[in-house]
Design brief:
Order of helices and strands: HHEEEEEEEHHEEEEEEHEHHEEEE
Strand order of the largest sheet: 10-9-11-17-18
CATH architecture of the largest domain: Alpha-Beta Complex
Helix content: 25-40%
Number of strands: 18
Structural class: alpha+beta
Largest sheet: 5 strands, antiparallel
CATH topology of the largest domain: Creatine Amidinohydrolase
Number of domains: 2
Number of helices: 7
Strand content: 25-35%
Distance between the termini: 22 Å
Shape: globular
């Protein structure tokens, strides 16, 4: 990672952190998810940054990858446990952070605190040479101390140029992976805790996509949308509603269908807890150093 300008990365991380803090006041019962998602995304853009990925707003048993569509009328309700996951982008510098906001009047406060403590405990271990299974073991230990279990098929990751989820996977339990962190790596650690089964599964709901290859579409309308994606989103994840703000909805979805058929799009299905358990999340981004780490997002 010697080519990284860490000062520029820190600026992107700061913008991400500020947007995450803004979300605390934006999320209120009675507001629509669509209104809040677009408010947070506008907050990032108004600071002069692009989006590393669409703002994820995942409620209760939904663990990840939920971003509202253009016609989504869902509202936050009292009792909800809301995960906000977001990141700013400038060039190939990417921010990534998440919090859980409790609208349950303290009902799930203990679980949220456990996730935050697990993240802090994991942070204390981060340094070059640390095995990722050791980080997972610490997260699992804190989780169980509070009576919860980590989600085993979600976790942290390395962040590289133009790739948010790259190379290594950082588990939320001891999975035996002996991969070592390296000095200069950019990583995120994100404990997901639940009172359910400890696994998530995919749903048929997909609103986030990522273009990962070249194609010459058959339909002229699809070619127009491909050019738009290449210009505005490059190889980063984008939301269907972003396309539908610029193109007719039918035209946009037909183009997505053609691109999926051509094998150049990756889908990000909404993930839900296998047994319907509540899921909480905490996430920060780090620079791995020789004997410790620098926390980028707060």
């Amino acid at each position: 990672m010697a080519e990284y300008n860490f000062e520029e990365l820190k600026k992107v991380a700061k913008a991400s952190s500020e947007a995450l803090e803004h979300s605390r006041s934006a999320v209120k019962d009675g507001r629509t998810l669509l209104e809040v998602a677009e408010e947070i995304e506008s907050f990032i853009k108004n600071k002069g940054y692009a989006l590393a990925f669409p703002v994820n707003i995942s409620i209760n048993e939904i663990a990840a990858h939920y971003t509202p569509g253009c016609d989504d009328t869902s509202v936050f309700e009292k009792g909800d446990v809301v995960k906000i996951d977001l990141g700013a982008r400038k060039g190939f510098y990417l921010g990534d952070c998440a919090i859980t906001i409790d609208l349950s009047e303290g009902k799930h406060e203990k679980m949220i605190h456990a996730a935050e403590e697990a993240l802090e405990a994991a942070t204390s271990l981060v340094k070059a040479g640390r095995r990722v299974c050791e980080i997972g073991r610490e997260i699992e230990s804190v989780s169980k101390k509070y009576g919860f279990i980590p989600v085993k098929n979600l976790g942290g990751h390395c962040i590289e140029e133009e790739e948010l989820h790259a190379s290594i996977f950082i588990p939320n339990y001891d999975n035996g992976d002996q991969t070592m962190l390296e000095e200069g790596q950019i990583i995120s650690i994100e404990p997901f805790l639940t009172n359910g089964a400890g696994f998530v599964k995919e749903t048929e709901n997909v609103e986030i996509f990522q273009k990962g290859g070249d194609i010459r579409p058959r339909l002229p309308a699809t070619r127009e949308i491909v050019e738009y994606i290449d210009k505005n989103y490059l190889t980063y994840p984008f939301a269907m509603r972003w396309l539908e703000r610029s193109f007719d909805g039918f035209k946009a979805r037909r183009a997505i269908s053609e691109l999926l058929g051509g094998g150049v799009l990756e889908e990000f299905p909404v993930l839900v807890e296998e047994k319907g358990g509540i899921v909480v999340q905490a996430e920060k981004e780090f620079i791995v150093e020789k004997d410790s780490c620098t926390v980028l997002t707060h």
